[in-house]
Specification:
The protein is of the alpha/beta class. It folds into three domains: 3-128 and 345-352, Rossmann fold (3-Layer(aba) Sandwich), CATH 3.40.50; 148-307, Rossmann fold (3-Layer(aba) Sandwich); 422-669, Vaccinia Virus protein VP39 (Rossmann fold, 3-Layer(aba) Sandwich), CATH 3.40.50. It has 20 helices and 23 strands. A seven-stranded mixed β-sheet has the order 18-17-16-19-20-23-22, with helices on both faces. It has a six-stranded parallel β-sheet with strand order 2-1-3-4-5-6, covered by helices on one side. Strands 9-8-7-10-11-12 form a six-stranded parallel β-sheet, sandwiched between helices. The longest helix is centred in the middle third of the chain and has 22 residues, at 424-445. The protein is elongated, with a radius of gyration of 32 Å. Bound molecules: zinc ion (ZN). The site of zinc ion has 8 residues, from loops.
Length: 676
């Protein structure tokens, strides 16, 4: 997908009382996504009154209508998203949450924590402070303690910045308190929606009295982060500014507007003066009462720096070259966190395509709250659909897999210890067993004319007949193997009297089937229209997909496609990993972590009948395979001999309770699938 085809909507927090830092970050995200060639917009309700400079041209024009655009992703940078907001956006596209702390945190399609979340929060997909947009301007050292000898005897510069609105009105008490400390130069930055700015007689009632006490009043600025290094101490509340300041190597003193902020501040190890106006009015006490206690300030800085996780250098913001750093004066050890991904927030989000649209691949359900999240990994999220029960994968980026020669030779060998062709005799043996099952179902139900070679008692090997036999004017049943690889199943099925055909994306596999086995095969992806168009129009009696169905991102479309090319009362046969086998049931986390990045759906024998019925198939048989007694919890490791008594007991249990890690499904096409 080209960058220009991607469409991102960034929804910042612009409600009363929410952090202005999120808005600044969202603006930057929109700008950087656009510079990568994507279409990106900032969303703001007209009533929210975004009045920061720099939003011109970045907002989604009202006439475009956010509901009519197929968003690649909708990014919520909202601090705490309400359930109403969540549902509204969730219906419109894949939802990415940044530093989300609201009640729907667990329901997002993909979660990114730039700031470390408080303890007890469900884990995000990615947690990496290196994804913060951090200031380039940093002080060379954490501390600037003026010494009489170094000639630097000016006052220490303190910046007070308490959010875009400062809903708890902590700014003025904080400034008044610090103005009483000798040796400080206090600057107060008023956020863009601070009510003081719209006070009647603003000059007389706000500016003059504060200025008279030596307090400088600063007006809102977009690039505050880059100016932090001009100060010696920042007073703020828990949020992006606190982390930016720590990154710029400034001591940070927090005062909390809400109990939630206070909890976050303490859990992240920031030094906090406490909660509310009372704490703000007593800020001076934390700096040594009415006279500045430099040693105390130094200790605060040290404490803050040691506790706050500050990434040292990120691709997002290479630090300015540092002046010679003397380890002796570097009093505060700064936690250095190497960026795990090497991504910036915008390059990461810009790489997202959400090919499966983060929908249930069976019922296209986008009710993200009803579908529960089973597991979040760095590159994907596993959910169980609340409507149909299917377990499916949400991937922001397409899986990095190509079904070329390499897959069959290298990847296959890695997984099974031998190349696909080396495994051919084994695969033929497995094919014989599967054809035996098919034969049984066909004969029992009288599904279609049984080819001569198939007319043997179930269980005994058929007489090979290298070419399809059309005995007595009987038509030869057709079989299509989707994902046929090098044709082990096709070769066996031909011997059983089927008119065979194969499809596979790998060119060398297809050419092997055509040239070496002399069985018609075509290169392609199923159920893409290009592939289906080339198939014989009379349809097939058997369509098989051995370990293929989980690779198809649109499962509903695949089952519909299979139904379309099957004759009435034709047989669908497939094999797939089982999520309710011994591994999926008892070690689900490990199972999901090791599930290949292109397995879009995870099947369970117990739910298969209902799923297939929706697509007009009647389940004929399930064969649970992949029994692994040694994987049983507790007892498995106790197995002494590979075929001993304990092995036998566990094997029996595995069969009885269908605990194999893979299974095969055989189903008969009963109805045409309703289109839609
Ligand atoms: Zn579903």
């Amino acid at each position: 997908m080209r960058g220009g085809e991607k469409k991102f909507l960034i929804v910042p927090a612009v409600e009363p009382g929410r952090g202005g830092g999120h808005l600044v970050r969202s603006l930057r995200l929109v700008q950087e996504l656009r510079s990568q060639g994507a279409e990106a917009y900032l969303f703001s309700r007209p009533s929210a009154g975004v009045n920061l400079p720099g939003t011109e041209g970045l907002l989604l024009p009202p006439e475009m209508g956010e509901q009519s655009i197929p968003w690649t992703a909708i990014v919520l940078d909202r601090f705490q998203t309400s359930p109403e907001e969540f549902h509204r956006w969730s219906a419109l596209g894949p939802l990415v949450g940044i530093d989300e702390g609201g009640p729907e945190r667990g329901a997002f399609d993909f979660l990114i924590d730039c700031l470390p979340p408080p303890p007890g929060f469900s884990p995000a997909n990615l947690a990496d402070p290196a994804l913060l947009f951090l200031p380039k301007n940093r002080r060379p050292h954490f501390m600037r303690i003026p010494q009489p000898s170094d000639g630097e005897t000016g006052p220490l510069r303190v910046l007070i910045t308490l959010g875009s609105e400062d809903a708890q009105a902590l700014s003025v008490p904080s400034a008044l308190s610090l103005a009483r400390v000798k040796g400080l130069e206090v600057s107060l930055l008023l956020g863009p929606r601070n009510p003081l700015l719209t006070t009647e007689d603003y000059e007389d009632r706000v500016v003059k009295p504060l200025t008279a006490l030596g307090i400088r009043i600063l007006l809102p600025q977009n690039d505050l982060a880059e100016h932090l290094a001009e100060y010696d101490l920042v007073v703020t509340h828990f949020g992006l500014t606190a982390f930016e300041a720590a990154h710029a190597r400034l001591p940070v003193l927090l005062v909390s507007p809400t109990a939630y902020h206070q909890r976050l501040a303490l859990s992240r190890g920031f030094y906090s003066a406490g909660l509310g106006r009372r704490a703000a009015a007593r800020l001076n006490a934390h700096l040594g009462g009415f006279s500045l206690d430099l040693q105390r300030l130094a200790r605060i800085a040290e404490k803050t720096a040691a506790a706050a996780p500050v990434p040292a250098a990120t691709a997002a913001s290479a630090p300015v070259p540092e002046t010679a750093s003397d380890p002796e004066t570097e009093t505060a050890p700064v936690t250095e966190i190497a960026p795990e991904t090497g991504d910036t927030l915008s390059s990461l989000i810009g790489s997202f395509d959400f090919v499966s649209r983060a929908r249930c691949p069976l019922c296209a359900d986008r009710n993200a709250t009803a579908s529960s999240v089973l597991r979040r990994l760095n590159d994907r999220t596993y959910r169980r659909c609340g409507a149909c029960g299917m377990v499916y994968m949400v991937r922001p980026k397409s899986p990095p897999i190509q079904y070329e020669e390499r897959y069959f030779f290298e990847d296959y060998k890695k997984q099974y210890g031998k190349t696909y062709l080396e495994d051919f005799p084994n695969l033929r043996r497995m094919a014989r067993r599967r054809l035996g099952v098919i034969q049984g179902i066909v004969q029992k139900n009288g599904l279609f004319p049984v080819p001569p070679a198939l007319q043997v008692p179930p269980g005994s090997a058929p007489k090979p007949s290298p070419t399809p036999v059309s005995g007595g004017g009987q038509r030869v049943p057709g079989l299509l193997d989707i994902g046929c690889a090098y044709g082990a199943f096709l070769a066996e099925a031909r011997d059983w009297g089927f008119d065979c055909r194969g499809i596979d994306p790998a060119e060398d596999a297809v050419s092997y089937v055509v040239k070496e086995l002399r069985i018609p095969a075509q290169r392609g992806f199923f159920p893409s229209p290009d592939t289906v168009r080339d198939l014989p129009s009379q349809g097939f009696d058997v369509v098989s997909l051995w370990y293929v169905i989980e690779h198809l991102s649109d499962l509903g479309e695949a089952l519909q496609g299979a139904s379309k090319i099957l004759r009435p009362r034709g047989l669908l046969a497939l094999a797939t990993p089982s999520f309710s086998g011994i591994s999926g049931r008892f070690r689900p986390a490990a199972f999901l972590r090791s599930s290949p990045p292109d397995h879009w759906t995870l099947w369970e024998p117990g739910r298969t009948k209902k799923i297939l019925r929706r697509y007009g198939f009647a389940l004929a048989k399930i064969v649970v395979t992949g029994h692994h007694p040694e994987r049983f919890p507790l007892l498995g490791p106790l197995i002494k001999e590979p075929r001993g008594p304990l092995y036998g007991i566990l094997y029996g249990l595995s069969r009885l309770f269908r605990l194999g890690d893979t299974f095969e499904v055989y189903a008969v096409k009963m109805n045409e699938v309703p289109h839609g």
